Known about the structure:
It holds the Pfam family AA_kinase. By secondary structure, the protein is α/β, with parallel strands linked by helices. The chain has 2 domains: about 270 residues, Acetylglutamate kinase-like (Carbamate kinase), CATH 3.40.1160.10; about 100 residues, Archaeosine Trna-guanine Transglycosylase, Chain: A, domain 4 (Roll), CATH 2.30.130.10. The protein has 15 helices and 14 strands. Strand 11 and strand 12 form a beta hairpin. The longest helix is centred in the first third of the chain and has 24 residues. The protein is globular. The two termini are about 20 Å apart. The ligand N[C@@H](CCC(=O)OP(=O)(O)O)C(=O)O binds next to helix 2, helix 4 and strand 4.
Amino acid sequence: MLPRQELTKAKRIVIKVGTSTLNYDTGKLNISRIEHLVRELSDLANQGKEIILVSSGAVGAGLERMKKNTRPASIPEKQAMAAVGQGILMHIYEKLFAEYDQIVAQVLLTKENSRQYSQYINSRNALMALLSMGVIPIINENDAVAVDELKIGDNDTLSATVATLVDADALIILSDIDGLYTANPSKDKNAKLLHEVPHITPEIENMAGGAGTSMGTGGMSTKIKAAKIAINSGCTMVIASGSEHDVLRRLLKGEELGTIFPAKETHLKQRKSWLAFGKQIAGDIIVDKGCEKAVLSGSSLLAVGILAIAGEFKQGNTVRILSQSGREIARGSVNYSSQTLQKLKGLHSDEFKNILLDNSPIFDEAVHRDNMVIMV
Ligand SMILES: Nc1ncnc2c1ncn2[C@@H]1O[C@H](COP(=O)(O)OP(=O)(O)O)[C@@H](O)[C@H]1O
Ligand SMILES: N[C@@H](CCC(=O)OP(=O)(O)O)C(=O)O
């Protein structure tokens, strides 16, 4: 089935709306757009679709309330603005959704919630319970507690993590632009809109630039990062304009709006998606061309193909597997620490016993294919 047609069948849908869509350039909330969004989402829920809204805008709403017109530079100030704004945002949503008799719930997440498998499953259970009750969860990052290493970092990535968590059929990212262009259109007047991106190649990644306004964060590059997560988890993603009339209804009828990133056929099992997207990356393993080919065709990663190791990691940590050119081809749970792998790299497993003098278990594979997820 064509990817646009697939969208017409989507039942569980995550919709992400960015600050640049929720706010005017003045920094004030775009009330009529929020009203329209709420109307469209309630209508989709009435059709029996399961809807999750990932909404940015807390910092923006906080800034407006505190009468500031530039995003603060320091993290504590940003956190303070988000804390002021999140309540305002929820109050608006609660009030508007109530007009359509639609119940909503606030869910605030951090990376911590996906790092531990038990917490990952707990968040999934809570979201599934809300969906089964016909409630629309409204998700944002828990900005007040999520400093640096706890931060998911941007709501594009958060929305893709959520889509993976709940096995969503589609992720729709609404922005202030109608999709991915061949270059940043604010800088290149000849940039053209791409209607479909069948594969995320390095060229596609290079097209994506940073945020367009002082309000938005991440720009297209975080949306491409989100697309990688979503499509590898079997979820089709679309980037479309939040200002396009009836954008959600039209997209879900198969209309060619925005840029579509079709889901990959292979749907990762829960544990594999957690492995790939839930856990923190502890380091990198750089492999030679032969090893890259073997990994991409489904083999385990053997030490003989390892050229170099970056970072310090322990056995069981998640590492990225990179090609010689630095492109991530896979990630997985590693059988040896970085210290041990430094000694084993380039060797065949029958040579390991000369190196591993202690009685530590000898694995043939540095990363077993069952604990590995292909990322291209
Ligand atoms: N290749 C590209 N195609 C489209 N937009 C791009 C591209 N590269 C950078 N951008 C910028 O990304 C912006 C959207 O991201 P962002 O400002 O973070 O908004 P949001 O708040 O919706 O996340 C666009 O307005 C545009 O200026
Ligand atoms: N958690 C922050 C959103 C951060 C973010 O990713 O913003 P955006 O790029 O507008 O989606 C907030 O609510 O302001």
